[in-house]
Amino acid sequence: MSTVKKKVVIIGGGTGGAMLANRLPRDEFEVTVIDKQPHNYFWPWLLYIAFRGSRRPIKREIRSVLKPWVNFIQSGVGGVVNLQDRYVELENGKRLEYDYVVIATGGATVDYSRVPGLDKVTEMFGNYHSNEESAWRVWQTLNGMRGHISDHTGSRCL
Ligand SMILES: Cc1cc2nc3c(=O)[nH]c(=O)nc-3n(C[C@H](O)[C@H](O)[C@H](O)COP(=O)(O)OP(=O)(O)OC[C@H]3O[C@@H](n4cnc5c(N)ncnc54)[C@H](O)[C@@H]3O)c2cc1C
To answer: For residue 5, how far is its CA from the centre of ligand 1 (angstroms)?
Structure first.
């Protein structure tokens, strides 16, 4: 006797979305991951870029981190997750029906402009947690620093 698989749509192929997709039993669920871009990022590695100048890649194709039986669609979700009729609408207007929907679109983004001047500082010196480009700017900033330390014996150049 064959059972009808439940359809699971996971919006977001980052850490949370990919882990869930790979763990759902394939004989019970037909899983589809949707992401607006093609890469799965290992965000903690930004620290190694910003503070160690690491050049190791921090991203992989989402398709490559998903089990072969998990479907992947690269598309943004145009703001429509219809809970009443249970469908997700893709950017191209196509509707994807589901039994269960999971929204795994990540955490907060920082609005630096809320603190006067902070957006300019971040633009100049980078930050270690947004993206690779910004983390590189932190590394370059740190490497370009010149300054003086002083103690009771005088001062010396760093
Ligand atoms: C510098 C740094 C260090 C960290 N260190 C640690 C650590 O040591 N330990 C730890 O546990 N965690 C750490 N974290 C946190 C960890 O990386 C996050 O908690 C984790 O990535 C969150 O996973 P997520 O799936 O919720 O979101 P994400 O991994 O951000 O994935 C969200 C996905 O949703 C997609 N998406 C967003 N909007 C849409 C949309 N409208 N339509 C389609 N797709 C969409 C995005 O493209 C993205 O692929 C660190 C984070 C940073 C930045």
So the answer is: 28
